[in-house]
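INFO batch 0412 | record 1 of 1 | parsing
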Amino acid sequence: MTSRRIVSNEKNLLEKDDSNDRTPGASEKSDIAPAVPAAVIVKLLGFTAAMVGGPIGVYFMTLNTIFRGSSTWAGAAAAITANVVLIAYVIVAMKEDQSDKIAAEENAKKKR
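INFO prediction complete | emitting tokens
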């Protein structure tokens, strides 16, 4: 006996043409706004520069001026500087998140 093949009229996942779902119609405008606001990128770049330049600058500044050649203490000062920059970034990020939440609540109150 021969086996019978099941014929389905439905298209499977690979055969479906979902280009209509992704492209906007003639009446719709496409969203070209960046996913991340420019202010967030500027803050991130600023903290990145501070994280790289701050500890290195503190190390070489304090190595011969404050700690008189003791690289252990200069390294400790650089580590503290890195931690200060990291904590500052976390605080700024938390305040930004809170301000976004407050703005959303105000918009919701205005719509009522």
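INFO post-check: The mean pLDDT is 84.
INFO record closed
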